[in-house]
Write a structure and sequence with these properties.
It holds the Pfam family Abhydrolase_1. This is Alpha/beta hydrolase. By secondary structure, the protein is α/β, with parallel strands linked by helices. It is built from 10 helices and 8 strands.
Length: 274
């Protein structure tokens, strides 16, 4: 198994395919395997790099302390380890925070930027919700119930219409062989709450694409569109049939937008909703 010993963590990563490098950065409580629905297709076009953020998956130690800046530093250190001068970044949710921090602090290392289901800061509502999830873990809530409660916030109504799909998703989450500990989850929640790069968005010079789910309860599409429209070279895509977990619910539409954006040579339009 590939590991990179960087920044006092043993960072788990995988590389798939070949071509221009594209790093995928996962969200809260998610790791490299959360990109499963899109890795195969993306690896037909790019060198796809996925990693387990500190505090999750096979990266150790899980409870060594973290912040968005720590995770961004790990991503850049992984590029160094792989001897890559730069890469395009695709970050989902908390991974979008990490991708933004990489772009702001290491602009020469980021080719293009894709932000999915995210914002430049977390809302008070989300911070309270995530702290409730922490409290539920600490009180010993049944794992299946805990994951089901999270699914209510990240999947669309359509997802719950197929009971077999819901049951299988919960089973997979409960039986996942690399579970995240309570302390590590809380540290990621605290890292999210502490991040805010709103004032620095106008300084981002990279071509940027924002992908929103019309049914996203955590980062509503209208709010994300308003936040990110200040980035000089930004295009915004709103997918009607998706909630927060965009690449899991509508991988085909998600992939089409990503591949078209990364393959385009021209600066994208300022906004393209649809």
């Amino acid at each position: 198994m590939p590991y990179a010993n960087v920044n006092d963590v043993n960072l788990y990563y995988e590389c798939h395919g070949k071509g221009a490098p594209l790093m995928l950065i996962a969200g809260l409580a998610s790791d490299s395997q959360s990109w499963g629905p899109v890795i195969d297709e993306l690896s037909q076009h790019y060198l796809v790099i996925v990693l387990d953020n500190r505090g999750v998956g096979r990266t150790t130690p899980q409870d060594g302390g973290t912040s968005i800046q720590h995770m961004a530093n790990d991503c850049m250190a992984l590029l160094d380890y792989l001897e890559l001068p730069d890469a395009s970044l695709l970050g989902h949710s908390m991974g979008g925070f990490v991708a933004l921090d990489c772009t702001i602090r290491y602009p020469a290392r980021v080719s293009k930027l894709i932000l999915a289901g995210t914002s430049a800061l977390n809302s008070d509502r989300n911070n309270s919700l995530f702290q409730d999830w922490v409290a539920d873990l600490k009180t010993g809530m049944d794992a299946a119930t805990w994951f089901r409660n999270i699914f209510y916030s990240i999947f669309s109504d359509r997802f719950f219409e197929n009971k077999e799909t819901v049951t299988e998703a919960i089973r997979f989450a409960v039986e996942y062989p690399y579970p995240q500990g309570v302390t590590a989850f809380e540290q990621q929640v605290d890292a999210i709450a502490a991040f805010n790069c709103l004032d620095q968005l106008p300084n981002i010079t990279q071509e940027t694409m924002v992908i929103c789910g019309k049914q996203d309860l955590l980062f509503p599409s209208e709010e994300s569109s308003n936040v990110f429209q200040v980035i000089p070279h930004v295009s915004i895509k709103v997918l009607d049939d998706a909630a927060h977990s965009i690449h899991m619910e509508v991988p085909g539409a998600f992939l089409a937008h990503v591949v078209n954006f990364l393959s385009a040579e021209d600066v994208p339009p300022r906004q393209d909703v649809g």
